[in-house]
Amino acid sequence: MPAFPPSLLSGTTLKTARNLLGKRLVCRTRTGTVCGIIVETEAYLRNDPASHSYRGRTRRNDVMFGPPGRLYVYFTYGMHHCINVVTQREGVGEAVLIRAVEPAEGLAAMKRRRGWKKTMPLTMLTNGPAKLAQAFGLSTRHNGMDLRRGSVTIEEGVTVPDRMVRRSGRIGISVAAEKRWRFFVKGSPFVSRT
DNA sequence: CGCACGATGCGCT
DNA sequence: GCGCATCGTGCGA
Length: 194
Prior knowledge:
Distance between the termini: 35 Å
Number of helices: 3
Helix content: 10-25%
Structural class: mainly beta
Radius of gyration: 15 Å
Shape: globular
C-alpha cells in the first residue's frame, strides 16, 4: 500500500498547500476506490480571520486543533461538505482546504454520487470543494479520520513544477480575501475558477 | 433563545 | 450574472 508522503506536513501550512498539488486523494470503500489528483488548494492559518479556527477551539473545529494529518470535514450552506488536511502540531489550528481534483479512478462512483448526466462536462464532478466531497462520498462522518493510516488518504501522485503553480486570493470569503493563499495548477480544467 | 450567515453549487435568465 | 436552497454554528440579547 502506498504511503502518505513523508515530508508533506513538515513545513509551513502554505508549503503544504503548495505541495498537495499533484498528490493523490484516495478513498477506499467496500464499493471500490475513488482517486483524484489534487489541482487546487487553499491555506487557512492561525490568526487568520477567514479560518474556522480564528475564534478558538469549539466542537465544530476541534479536529483543526488536533494532531496533523487528520481530515477536517465541515458542513456549510445547509447542504455542502468541504474537506481539509490538518497541518501543524496539536493546538495550533491550521489546515488546507482541498478545492478541486482531477478524477483518476472510480469515475463511475463519482458520476453516480454527483448525479452526472452524459451532457455534463467531466469537470462538473470535482471542480469545487463541495463537488469533490460529494464525488468522494465524504461527509462529517469522516471528520477526524487519520489520513496517514485509514481508508481515506493522500499518496504521491505527479510532480507539479513551480512553473505550473499559480497563486491567488482565496475564494468565497469576505475577510482576509487579499491573502494569496490559494494554489492551483495552471491550465487544469478541473480548477474551480481562474 | 433567536437569528444572521457561510471556505457553495445549481438552475434559470 | 443572479437568486435561492437549507441548516449547523456561534454570537448577541
